[in-house]
Amino acid sequence: MTPPAFADLLTPDVTAFVRAARDYCAFMLEAPKLSVPERLATARARLLELYAAGARLPDAVPDPHREAPRFTAPEGWTPLDEYDFYWTAFDAFDPESSEAIVGSLDDDLVETYQDVREGLWHWERGEFADAVWQWRFGFLSHWGAHAVEALRAIHHALEKVRGSSG
User: Fold this and answer.
1) H-type helices in the chain, by residue range?
2) CB neighbour class for 119 (10 Å; exposed up to 12, middle 13-18, buried from 19)
3) Which helix (H) or strand (E) holds 85?
4) What is the distance, to the nearest Å, from the Cα of residue 41 to the centroid of all Cα atoms in its chain?
5) Tell me, what's the pLDDT at 94?
6) pLDDT of residue 6
7) Tell me, what DSSP letter sits at residue 89?
8) In this predicted structure, what is the pLDDT of residue 68?
9) Residue 4 has what pLDDT?
10) pLDDT tens profile 59-93
């Protein structure tokens, strides 16, 4: 299969994802400067945009000889302290795994950042099919699940923040 040309990948859905990915990564770099309520509310908005755009990404065929570096948490990243850990089910559709497990909002946000930033690395180098493939693959297999878990945890954390502020 011939990899799609840049023009074939520059669809409104892909450009919307690139914008959402850049916005999410910019948020992650600025997040430590925000108060916890601002951080939670902004994370929710950025994750919703990112997830919605990720769900519309097309298939792409990557170059098997290119690999992006693994990104770490943004410099200065700090956990959300009392809102970091939450309870969830590993597989919501497997009755055998109905036992609750601990999730980490910090882990969800950082792992989403790492995967999305990896695709941006490809995009910024003109490796467009690699970027789209990385984002779509990660959406289906990794960062998409982290984003959903983070959104659920943020929803409940914001309820607690609102409850404690009046």
Assistant:
1) 6-9, 12-30, 36-54, 105-124, 128-141, 143-164
2) buried
3) strand 85-89
4) 15
5) 79
6) 60
7) E
8) 87
9) 55
10) 998 888 888 899 999 999 998 889 999 998 777 77
Those residues of the chain that have pLDDT short of 50 are 1
Q: How far apart are the first and last CA of the chain?
A: 58
User: 57-87: b or e for each residue (b if 16 or more CB lie within 10 Å)?
Assistant: beebebeeeeebeebebbeeeebbeebbebe
Which class is domain 6-61+80-164? mainly alpha
pLDDT at residue 109 in the model:
98
Which pLDDT score, from 0 to 100, does residue 12 have? 94
Residue whose C-alpha is closest to residue 6's, from 127, 136, 91 = 127
User: Using CA atoms, how far apart are residues 17 and 56, in angstroms rounded to an integer?
Assistant: 8
Decide: helix, strand or coil at residue 142: coil
- Torsion, Cα 99 82 115 17, to 10 degrees, reads 110
Show me where the domains of the chain are located: 6-61+80-164
- Cα 53 to Cα 72: distance, rounded to the nearest angstrom: 23
pLDDT at 26: 98
Number of alpha carbons in the 13 Å side-chain half-sphere of residue 20: 24
